[in-house]
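Regression test case RT-17, inverse folding.

Input:
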């Protein structure tokens, strides 16, 4: 809970009553490894804050290949925010890569927070903007770099994640095959 409170306080000031209200709306959710937090074809039910574990965002391309396009680690929000806010069907999956523990908010509770706390929408906007900028920062170099540089950048951006995530997901994220990733890893040791 403390990590969550510290995270949101980076984006605005809240008094103790407001923090208590927010925490009163949160539910704990344990998500087993490989379970889905949100699924394509369904309306996202929650916005979550990851206390423990790692999740990934993925989709299937037109050749039915599974593509991982981002990872989320502890102390970050996990949400298909646009689809959650609009309550429309998601086009991608959010999957637990490890066992996860999250604080989650239903759409009703999330809206109640926004309608009760003056300035919450501004805080929420800054949080979403921060999440998007992080994703863009991590994804942008992947377009122009060679595979080895992309892998080294991945290790730099996600220290310690390489030992927690299946290499097939890392290869997909980097846009290379798993055998290519194995060769790169062997060559840089």
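Golden output:
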């Amino acid at each position: 809970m403390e990590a969550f409170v510290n995270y949101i306080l980076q984006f605005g000031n809240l008094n103790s009553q407001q923090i208590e209200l927010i925490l009163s709306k949160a539910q704990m959710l344990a998500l087993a490894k490989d379970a889905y937090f949100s699924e394509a074809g369904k309306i996202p039910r929650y916005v979550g804050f990851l206390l423990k574990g790692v999740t990934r965002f993925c989709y299937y391309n037109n050749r039915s290949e599974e593509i991982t396009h981002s990872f989320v680690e502890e102390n970050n929000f996990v949400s298909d925010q646009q689809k959650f806010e609009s309550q429309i069907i998601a086009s991608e999956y959010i999957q637990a890569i490890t066992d996860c523990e999250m604080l989650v908010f239903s759409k009703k509770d999330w809206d109640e927070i926004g309608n009760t706390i003056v300035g919450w929408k501004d805080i929420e906007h800054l949080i979403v903007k921060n999440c998007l900028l992080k994703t863009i920062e991590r994804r942008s170099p992947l377009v122009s770099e060679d595979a080895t540089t992309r892998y080294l950048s991945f290790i730099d951006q996600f220290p310690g994640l390489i030992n927690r995530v299946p290499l097939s997901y890392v290869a997909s994220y980097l846009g290379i095959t798993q055998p290519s990733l194995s060769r790169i890893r062997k060559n840089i040791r």
